[in-house]
Write a structure and sequence with these properties.
Layout: E1 4-8, H1 33-42, E2 45-52, H2 63-81, E3 87-91, H3 100-103, H4 111-120, E4 128-131, H5 134-143, E5 146-150, H6 156-164, E6 171-173, H7 176-185
Parallel strand pairs: 1-2, 1-4, 2-3, 4-5, 5-6
Helix pairs in contact: 1-2, 1-7
This protein binds magnesium ion.
The site of magnesium ion has 7 residues, from loops.
């Protein structure tokens, strides 16, 4: 358990979120994502995506489409900065359609992060969770990670919701690259 990681939400954090993204040709990464990931990896962070994909249980997209989108993300990262996501985890379930046992994987529960940590030898205390919604920050905190709220230009209400719940991320970043810079400068007692 001696690796450190940056866990990333996918839609709205890495890529523009059109809602239930199933077409790899529609993948559009935010500016600075490829550069930021490359820098984090150079500094020893594993990069792991943690994503709710209830579009699968809703019948709107298939697992194959989710995987094709993930592959497309990695091919863009490869083209832009010769980098890649190390692993992708997603939860296909939703409480409207699935039983409690299945739904446990959904953020804000920490289950996917805990599984990823076990499977990849990651120390969660040295790790970060980046996301664009309240559920992401709650998930990161539930897993025992530092958390970074990433502004994407259209999620200000998510930050207001967090503050109203009296939940504060470790850092509120202006954009993805700003979040990466914070991680690389993070000192504290680690
Ligand atoms: Mg998101």
């Amino acid at each position: 358990m001696n690796h450190k990681a940056v866990f990333l939400d996918r839609d709205g954090t890495l890529n523009i979120d059109p809602g239930y993204l199933g077409d790899p040709d529609k993948v559009k990464l935010f500016p600075g994502v490829a550069k930021g990931i490359a820098e984090l990896k150079k500094n020893g962070y594993k990069i792991i995506v943690i994503s709710n994909q209830s579009g699968i249980t809703r019948g709107l997209i298939t697992e194959e489409q989710v995987k094709a989108v993930n592959e497309r993300i990695n091919s863009i990262l490869g083209e832009e900065n010769n980098t890649s996501i190390d692993a992708f985890y997603y939860c296909p379930y939703h409480p409207e359609f699935d039983d409690d046992e299945k739904v446990k994987c959904r953020k804000p529960n920490p289950d996917m992060v805990l599984r990823a940590a076990e499977e990849n030898g990651i120390n969660l205390k040295d790790s970060f969770f980046f996301g664009d919604t309240t559920g992401d920050i709650e998930c990161g905190k539930n897993a025992g990670c530092e958390t970074i709220f990433v502004s994407n230009g259209s999620n200000k209400n998510e930050l207001i919701k967090l503050h109203n719940k009296n939940i504060f991320p470790t850092f509120e970043a202006q954009n993805f690259l700003n979040a990466c810079e914070f991680v690389l400068n993070f000192s504290g007692d680690k």
